[in-house]
Amino acid sequence: MTSQTPEGRTVTRTVQGHEVPIAGTWNLDPTHTSITFEVRHMMISKVRGSIQEASGTIEIGDAFADSRVEVTMETASVETGTPDRDTHLRSPDFFDVATYPHMSFRSTSIETTEDGFRINGELTVKDVTAPVILDAEFNGGIIDPYGNPRVAFSAAGEVDRTDWGLTWNMALETGGVLVGKKAKLIIDTEATLAN
Hints:
Radius of gyration: 18 Å
Strand content: over 45%
């Protein structure tokens, strides 16, 4: 597959030794976007879940440091594979989806690192905004079979859910708590260049 736009521009460029997308507005492809999380359960195992519905844009600046990311996620789309647990996560104990149907992320700065990029941003959950740092990689760009310039990114970070008032827990008779405070976030996304 080619990596040039119909106008003959390449889909990517090199900035400070890193391959990055060409400047422009890139729309997240919801069908190729995965937002997953991992939390300790009963201190010994891990529960994994995902946010199934998200939309957003990646604004790539002429100067890469001027780039921005904005993402909106539907809280009711949280899934862990267990209906009872999903219902609890959607309740006021956690995301309270009836009152707060969305959560959002917006970057405050993007900087290059030795291995990729660091996205400093703010995550808003239940009207509480707290900082988040994501370590990100650019996975390349192509022209897809339908003629659309397409790029892919992955990112990961760790948050403390209590920073957003998500404090529900239950003590265990053996010591410790039912749900860990720390959550690992893993994001994989493809985005297409806006017309």
